[in-house]
Amino acid sequence: MSAPDDKFYRARVCQRTELGPTLWTMRVQVDGHFTFSPGQYATLGLEDVTKKRWERPYSIVSSPCENEVEFFLELVPGGDLTPLLHKLRLGDELLMRKAPKGRFTFDTTSGRTNHLLVSTVTGVAPFVSYARTLHHESKTGRMPGEHKLFLLHGASHASEFGYREELQRIVESVPWFKYVSTVSRPWEDPSWLGETGRVDDLVRKYADNWRLTAADSIAYLCGHPEMIEHCKAILRRAGFTKEWLREEVYWVPKKQGLDEPHPV
Question: What CA–CA distance (Å, rounded) separates 255 from 257?
Answer without folding.
Answer: 5
